[in-house]
Amino acid sequence: MPRETIIRPEDDSPEMDVPLRLNIPDGALDDDSALRPSRIDDMIGQRDVYERILIAIDATKKRREPLGHILFDGPPGLGKTTFATCIPRELGTSCQIASGATLKAPKDLIPYLTNAEERSVLFIDEIHRMQKAVEEFLYPAMEDFRIDLVIGEGNGARTINMQLRPFTVIGATTRAGLLSAPLRDRFQMREHLEFYPVDDLAAIITRNAAKLRVKIDETAAYEIARRSRGTPRIANNRLRWVRDYAVSRANGEVSLQVALKAMRMQEIDALGLDRQDRKYLDVIARVFGGGPVGVEAVAHTMNVAPDTLVDEVEPFLLRSELIVRSPRGRKLTILALEHLAETERLFSKPS
Ligand code: ADP
Question: Ligand 1, closest atom to CA 45?
């Protein structure tokens, strides 16, 4: 059941006179909320996307019209939800959050559409997981702010059109390729989020260390950043672990040495790969002779869901040129074989 949370405007934001209402299905937001930027200005990196979004928001406020629909795509943890939840705050409107996976029939979407206030935002996470019938039901809502409801059955059935208040859909997906063309085309803006450079991640780590009240060396922040796979969520997780390690094993301060020891204990290597990433490479190397091999076969061998590999493991390995994808499957590169040999030596030695 959706859980409704009312977020009151911050005292120092005069333009936000409307409370931000979040309709949050259980589990839609992680426990990362303490570190999640609440204003778009607090977001670090992704400057091109940021600039375009700010222009769209500014124009919308001036025209007093709803913001055009926006689709964010990219691997998990790069800031899709953060952008989506910051935008209504900038607009001073309410925001409802739905998850594509739970929208199984048009009736699941109706409450969100009829509850949508004028110029508010409906954020649909994992929008590629919406059922086709729901997708089709959403088309007229996005295009003409109208839904077509069928009342009754058989000969007595009739369709009534229901007018909605103008609103904005913000969709997020890790798999833009799975969206049907008609759905994709209904988004006026499509923004692809890229992995973050080390400098941006180091800035996020430094700022979040201050939020977590932990003292951290600049060199340590950079080392954690280098081992965060280009992903703010992973950077935050690494930071939390390093902080815990520092509290338990050091004097609570994160020096480069403490950070390296903490990450070694979790077997996070110099490229930022963890045990699961290396297991994936190792399975392709040993069981499938380096590939090419289909992702399902690798997933079965590892006993994980193929989606986990496609969404969470492969994007960074592809970006780092450790694997390549061909029509016949995934294949390791020389770089991956060298990396496996090196990390095997490193982690087989006692620390
Ligand atoms: P996604 O929806 O793409 O999976 P999120 O928006 O949930 O990713 O981001 C995960 C976490 O990473 C956020 O809670 C936040 O702490 C952090 N984060 C993401 N993008 C940024 C950013 N641009 N600046 C600072 N922190 C960020």
Answer: 23
Q: How far is the CA of 173 from the centre of ligand 1 (A)?
A: 14
Enter the pTM of the model. 0.89
- Residue among 33, 123, 128, 233 to mutate when testing ligand 1 (max atoms within 8 A of CB): 233
pLDDT tens per residue across all 351 residues of the chain: 343 433 333 434 444 334 455 554 444 444 567 899 999 999 999 999 999 999 999 999 999 889 999 999 999 999 999 999 999 999 999 999 999 999 999 999 999 999 999 999 999 999 999 999 999 999 999 999 999 888 888 888 888 899 999 999 999 999 999 999 999 999 999 999 999 999 999 999 999 999 999 999 999 999 999 999 999 999 999 999 999 999 999 999 999 999 999 999 999 999 999 999 999 999 999 999 999 999 999 999 999 999 999 999 999 999 999 999 999 999 999 999 999 999 988 888 665
What positions carry a catalytic annotation?
80-81, 125, 174, 233
Atom of ligand 1 nearest to the CA of 79: 6
- The full DSSP string for 183-243 is HHHT-SEEEEPPPPPHHHHHHHHHHHHHHTT--B-HHHHHHHHHTSTT-HHHHHHHHHHHH
Residue 92 CA to ligand 1 centre (angstroms): 21
Residue 294 identity:
G
How many A from CA of 115 to the centre of ligand 1?
27
Tokens of 173: 């997906």
Nearest to 140 by CA among 180, 174, 169: 169
